[in-house]
Amino acid sequence: MRTNRMISGLALLLIWGAPAFAQDRIGEVSTTWRMMSPNDKVVVERYDDPKVENAACYISRAETGGWSGAMGFAEDPSRFSIACRAVGPLRFKDKIAQDEDGEVVFSEDTSFFFKELRVTRFLDTERNVLVYLVWSTRLIDGSPYNAISVVPIN
């Protein structure tokens, strides 16, 4: 009985703590074959900006396989690519940050210990575009790997 309550509580925490940034896995390819455990992969995922209707970002990233990857203990490499597009007329649902720090619109753990993949949005008012930056964080030192994509605002 107590175990069921703990599991229910954990499930609710996971639902409440889930990011507002919608994510869908589009596909994956295996890069390393492993006989007795899951393969290493490159995955392609779609993220919809929660504040900009019809702005979609597609990210490809490496995902570590093996038993440690399957259990969530492996650290995924900080290698990724991003392509963002307007998939319809852009509509702003809320005010967009206009400062130099931008706004983190998505964050996902990529290791069990203190590493995240983040997507930050910037607004370039001079060129009238949204700039999306994908990058990685670490507890001790960040990663220099990053990629950007630009979406024109019509």
TrEMBL record:
Keywords: Signal. Residues 1-22 form the signal peptide. GO terms for cellular component: cytosol. It holds the Pfam family CreA. The keyword ATP-binding does not apply. Coiled coil: none annotated. PANTHER family: PROTEIN CREA (PTHR37952:SF2), PTHR37952. This is CreA protein.
